[in-house]
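Narrative of activities, Objective 1.

The group set out to show that a structural description can be obtained from nothing but a protein's sequence at a throughput compatible with the screening campaign. Below is one input-output pair from the validation batch, recorded exactly as produced.
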Amino acid sequence: LNCKSMLKRSLQIVLLLSLFTSCEDIIELELPTDDNRLVVDGLLRVDKTQQFIDVRLTLRETSNFYEENQATQAESVQIHYGVLNQDNHFENPSTSHLVEEVPGTGVYVPDSNSATDQRIPTTSAEQGMTFVLEVLHKGRHYFAQTLYAPAVPFDNLEQGDGTLFDEDETEIVVTFSDDPNNDNYYIFDFGYGEFLTVEDQFFQGQQFQFSYFYDSSLQPGQEINVSILGATKDFYDYMGLIVEQTTNSNGVFGTPVATVRGNVVEITGQDYIDVLNNNGQPNDYALGYFAVVQEYSRALTIQ
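Output recorded for this entry:
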């Protein structure tokens, strides 16, 4: 190529570079906005070897698309529990008043400064026991009702040597025996934000074994904790939907891609505490879930 051709080629390259760099304009997207919603992290895990239930309930509030949910404070948080009669009212209910553990955290625990003990004994967690959560937040009244959900212990938990998609995966083999007296639903917590839902439709009353595969992030000598949680049918359905939409970093009580409604409804202005739906206010609800479930846990050291 002569000098004239080289100069022409160079000018073409410069013009192309200028064209590409001129496309780097900042585009501001107008994302859809919605009113902030209360988010209730109300999964209470019951260890029957302990005297009291570890009641720790977290309240957050949704923000805009780019920000994480923020801790929020409520005017009142209470948990009522007892046996419901045929009219769906408590017979001799007990109540636990919760207060914010540390100001600004949104974490609520039984009030230790009360004149009476506000902790909930584990003896109250029995099949047929109903728990009701009441939250007064920014003048709005929220309500959630759930039955206590028992679980069964592990028969065995061990590391396997199989793989599913990747040779670096770690197999965990879980074995447990289903309760033959009820239709049971289970939530398995494998740590790191990883959950699995299981129902006993095809193994009712029998021993059941399955494998769960971690990715290559697990290292030899690392200890993991695996839990089996009881679940009501509604909580099982909720977790099945929420697990599909969450990643390890989001957590199961974060805001999912599509809104999955839990069991916390707004009953502001309604007459009775035993209202179980808000058909008159279909757009007024909180995110998250309130559940009281038995938990069995085991630790396993990766080889």
